[in-house]
Amino acid sequence: MPPHISVLIDTYNHERYIKQAIASAVDQDFPAADTEILVVDDGSTDRTPEIARKFEPRVRYLRKQNGGQASAFNAGLAELRGDIVAFLDGDDYWAKDKLSRVVRAFDENPGIAAVGHGYFEVDESNAIRGRWLPDAGARISLETPEGALRSSSLRVFLGTSRLAIRRSVLDKITPVPAELTICADTPLLTWAPALGGALLLPEPLCYYRVHGANHWASDRPSDQQLRTRYRLQRLLLALLPPRLQSLGVSDAAITAFLDFDRLEAARIKLILDGGAPWETFRVELASARASYRNPTIGYRAFRALTLLLTLLMPPRRFYRLRDWYAARGLRRWRERVGGAADAAPVVTRQPSNDTGAAPHDVTP
User: Fold this and answer.
1) Predicted local confidence at residue 363, as pLDDT
2) What are the DSSP calls for 150-219, one per residue?
3) Are 55 and 119 a contacting pair, CB within 8 Å?
């Protein structure tokens, strides 16, 4: 009898973290008999294979030639048999009740295509840097342009280690385009909601790790990392819309759902290559309108000043000034004059009594 849920752990040179990732999947409070766990190693050259194989036979280990994250996903999905597939990056880890909560959500919502949830952001030593939570009952829907725009910034709760999708839905949206050597979760978390929407659980059920080797999550990305992001976003903006159209999503909803991606690509290009001040003005004005609702008079004044600065200096100088502002935590001074509501119901806050302790460490 096939398992109820499959766990796909993709990894590449994660020797520092892979034991914790696999252990967190093995040590779930969900019945082991209803779970299968597969580690897909994308050609690691460090001790990742040695560490992962210590979990056999409870965990299956599949090693392949290095080809990137999309190829790892496609290789793993071909081997899995569960009704639901939950994804986990080899440098992240889960809370003990992750699978039980996700399976319950699918069972209670038979029409939903995918389930995501809140998460802790941790550093290399498991210290918690922050907690990200959606509002209770938050959903991602592409049925209308308004719903798609509201859902756009909620996609963060469907990133790889937060993402679980029904197998019947995966069969309709895979294989993942092989060009995506990183961020191969983006097509999945974009296309799956078109086939039933996605439910977001308000609990932080995984620990997302930020470290120096992250391809995407970096507090101060280098120019090379930014160029990689720009190329990737341009590729995604070419790949995502045609499939959404074929899944029945309207052009207006597609435009709304991907608006932030287009703006971010334009912003990165300005940071790297410069441009005319009016281009910065256009991007930042559109971003503010898409991101915030019901601004106070004080916030409107601050935003007007910011937009004026975009017209008074070259783009790269403006964005260096913005980074300087953010790095020194000066937002707290701006908040004294007013604020605005986020367009999407996302709650971010630093933990108070939370600890960064890892799940119980399973010794194979």
Assistant:
1) 34
2) HHHGGGGGGSGGG-EEEHHHHHHH-SPPTT-SS-THHHHHHHGGGGT-EEEEEEEEEEEE--TT-SS--S
3) no
SS3 124: coil
Q: What gap in Å lies between CA 37 and CA 154, rounded to an integer? A: 27
pLDDT (0 to 100) of residue 240: 98
Give the other-Cβ count within 10 Å of 244's Cβ.
Answer: 23
How far apart CA 146 and CA 136 sit, in angstroms, is: 19
**Per the omega criterion (within 30 degrees of 0), is the bond before 31 cis?**
no
The tokens describing 184, both together, are 């191969």
Q: 5-209, what's its fold?
A: Spore Coat Polysaccharide Biosynthesis Protein SpsA; Chain A (3.90.550)
In whole angstroms, what is the distance from residue 102 CA to residue 99 CA? 5
Tell me how many helices (H) and strands (E) the chain has: 14, 13
CB < 8 Å & 24+ apart, contacts of 233-236: 233/261, 233/264, 233/265, 233/268, 234/265, 235/179, 235/180, 236/180, 236/183, 236/186, 236/187, 236/261
Give the list of residues 6+ apart from residue 238 with CB closer than 8 angstroms, or none. none
**228, 227, 214: which is closest to 159 by C-alpha?**
214
CA distance 279 to 276: 5
Q: What is the Cα gyration radius of the chain?
A: 21
Check residues 335 and 105 and name the one with the higher pLDDT: 105
User: Which residues on adjacent β-strands are paired with residue 73?
Assistant: none
Q: Where in the chain is the domain with CATH 3.90.550.10?
A: 5-209
If one counts every other C-beta atom within 10 angstroms of the C-beta of residue 56, the result is 11
Cβ(91)–Cβ(160) below 8 Å? no
* pLDDT tens sequence across 98-148: 999 999 999 999 999 999 999 999 999 999 999 999 988 899 999 999 999
